[in-house]
Design a protein that fits this description.
Helix content is 59%, strand content 18%. It is built from ten helices and ten strands. Helix 1 packs parallel to helix 5. 25% of the residues are buried.
């Protein structure tokens, strides 16, 4: 072992410097390692939150609006950010769903193809935002930012935007890996959430359609029963009474044939009149069930006669109509008749009506418009008449819509698909 007392002071000084430098280097390496570990742990905390808590809670039905703020908070704490924003994409727009700290809600309309460009972009900064989404640029020119698209299979679900004062290059080094992993997990979760929502909506729509169909069938059965009762009542009160009178008078004529000739002649005249009245009653009843003019001449002629009989002054515009299947013609005819009857009841005595029919894009369309008092469609009960119209059209695959405002009249429109019917 060398004798330290015999070393010159310069050697001792150099040895001290080497030892100090070695210690400083080791300390710097240790500090860097600790910081790196802290960043990795912090990054993992945000990613793990999305992988575990976020995904499971979303799957169990917890609302997205309650989970995303926790994602933003976790990310901000992990990377020591000044601000974190999560934007969601829907219908060609970006909406600010979450911001930490909280900022005013904003909406950005995407130019054509920008959503596709953003969906396939890597984590980017100011230059990318300046070109494609300048609305995202922070107000503070000194703030660095990173933008990570939330996407899956080329579909854009949103963006994660982070801001921090300082070098953007340093923020990119510290944040990009975390953001890439985070948005990958978010993209898969949001894709599943949208699929689940779409499935739930489809099931709910099918459930409502099934309920509507059941209710419609019940109304059709009830309407058919009521119509049979009406026909029975009309026959009993009308034609049947004339026929009973005819039978009674025919018997009296037979009894008086060899005696009171003048009385017999008077009864014969009454018999002829009663017979004509019975025929008229039967024709009227048959016309209400299914008008002969509709089956013989078609919609144009039948509706023309209906418009002439309408209580309100009514015009018909139905050029170039051809013949259609009987069930389609009946549905349109009785819907128009129902709409005219509703107009007569509610439009007002000074109103006028117009019925228009036309064929367009493999569909038969009709419109009944009046310039009467109108009503508020959002608050008024649709009533049995409108329900009957919807049921009639629904039975042949058609649809009905009603537009009205107080003081601006009412417009009833219907459409029936024709397909390849001749």
């Amino acid at each position: 072992m060398p004798d330290v007392s015999r070393l010159d002071p310069v050697s001792i000084a150099l040895a001290g410097i080497v030892i100090a430098f070695t210690g400083m280097t080791a300390a710097a390496v240790l500090v860097g390692w600790v910081r790196q570990r802290r960043r990795e742990v912090a990054s993992l905390s945000a990613i793990d939150f999305v992988r575990t808590s976020f995904v499971s809670r979303l799957a169990h039905g917890e609302p997205l609006v309650e989970l995303l703020p926790q994602v933003a908070e976790s990310l901000r704490d992990s990377l020591r950010l000044d601000a974190t924003e999560i934007w969601l994409s829907q219908g060609g727009e970006l909406n600010l769903a979450v911001s930490d700290p909280k900022r005013e809600a904003r909406r950005i309309s995407l130019l054509p193809n920008v959503d596709s460009i953003a969906a396939n972009a890597p984590v980017s900064g100011r230059p990318w935002a300046r070109v494609w989404l300048p609305e995202l640029l922070p107000d503070d020119a000194a703030a660095s930012m990173r933008i990570a698209p939330i996407s899956l299979s080329g579909e854009l679900f949103g963006l994660v935007v982070v801001e921090r004062t300082g070098s953007e290059e340093r923020l990119a080094v510290e944040a990009d890996d975390t953001l890439e992993e985070l948005v990958r997990e978010l993209g898969a979760a949001l894709k599943k959430e949208r699929l689940d929502t779409a499935l739930h909506d489809s099931v709910e729509q099918l459930r409502r359609q099934a309920q509507d169909l059941q209710a419609s069938r019940a109304r059709i059965v009830a309407a058919a029963d009521a119509e049979r009762r009406r026909i029975e009542r009309d026959l009993h009160d009308g034609a049947q009474q004339y026929l009973v009178a005819i039978a009674v008078k025919a018997g009296l004529i037979q009894q008086l044939a060899d005696g009171d000739t003048s009385r017999s002649k008077a009864l014969l005249k009454e018999l002829a009149s009663d017979t004509q009245l019975a025929l008229d009653e039967l024709r009227s009843l048959a016309h209400g069930i299914y008008p002969p003019l509709l089956s013989n001449a078609g919609l144009g002629e039948a509706l023309g006669a209906a418009c002439r009989r309408a209580t309100l002054p009514t015009e018909l515009d139905a050029p170039d109509l051809r013949r259609y299947p009987a069930e389609l013609e009946a549905a349109v005819y009785f819907c128009c008749l129902e709409a005219l009857q509703n107009a007569a009841k509610y439009a007002g005595s000074n109103a006028n009506a117009r019925v228009t029919l036309w064929e367009e894009a493999d569909g038969l369309l009709f419109e009944i418009r009046d310039d009467g008092v109108g009503f508020d469609v959002t608050h008024e009960d649709p009533g049995a008449g409108l329900l009957n119209m919807r049921d009639r059209l629904g039975s042949v695959g058609g649809t009905l819509s009603i537009e009205s405002q107080p003081g601006r009249g009412t417009r009833v429109t219907g459409a029936i698909p024709l397909g390849h019917d001749p």
